[in-house]
Amino acid sequence: MKKNSAKGLSDDADCSYEKIDFQSVKNRVVEKIETATVERVPFSHVFVKGIFSERVYACVLRHLANKDTEENLTYAPMANWPGRNSIPLIDKFGKVKAKEPSFWGHLSRALGSDEVKSAYVRKFGATMERRFGGVKVERVLQNVRLNHRLDLTRDTSGYSIPPHTDTNEKAVSILYYLAFPETSNTSVGTRMYASKNKRDDGIRYPPVEVLQRRLKISITILRKWRASHSYQT
């Protein structure tokens, strides 16, 4: 019988997809998004702690670490980004690519649900309305096709990415950092920069003296793994 150091899970059956209430996973994610505070500097963003319960998070890590899981995850190098490897869980058309039935298939459907999408879009309603020409966010949700995309990426030694803006195809970008508490490098994180060209998301912010902000992520930083989630128009 195997013992998992993360919260003492006792055997692999504890983390099989049949043992996880993915409806509760989805509900928790939505609640965390809805109660998160939007930071306005240098642009609208939220930082959410504990988006998964401790048990679900431990199971996520188990399925990342265990090469013998039913998914048999295989990473492919990403073109033009040496050191970054990726597995598509939901493609840009909103189709779940993860093997089903499986832990990753069910988790992908939870994170890629309409309820989660709506929560993110409403959270950034002011920015979304400006982007779509003043159209109210509820009409955006009703009339604009926003497809889910979800990738599981692994960054290996030597990988780096310079400051950049995301493609205009993305309406919202979400990063779920997946960290192993005992082994992950918690000295790294996400950096956000103010534009030298004064580009912004159209929302009036208070004056800013510090042009760089570093987000120090405690239990959600990982040197190797992350899930990249976006909604594309």
Structural account:
This protein has helices at 22-35, 54-65, 103-111, 114-123, 125-131, 137-143; strands spanning 76-77, 84-90, 147-155, 170-177, 190-193, 212-215, 225-232. With 233 residues, it is α+β, with helices and mostly antiparallel strands. The protein has one domain (12-232): Jelly Rolls. The strands form two sheets. A five-stranded antiparallel β-sheet has the order 1-2-3-7-4. A two-stranded antiparallel ribbon has the order 5-6. β1 (76-77) and β2 form a beta hairpin. α1 runs parallel beside α4 (114-123). The termini are far apart. 22% of the residues are buried. Residues 1-5 and 204-226 have low confidence and may be disordered.
**Count of structural domains:** 1
Question: Total strand count, please?
Answer: 7
How would you characterize the largest beta sheet? Answer: 5 strands, antiparallel
- Morphology call: globular
What tags apply to this protein structure?
233 residues, alpha+beta, Jelly Rolls, five-stranded antiparallel beta sheet, two-stranded antiparallel ribbon, 7 strands, 18% strand
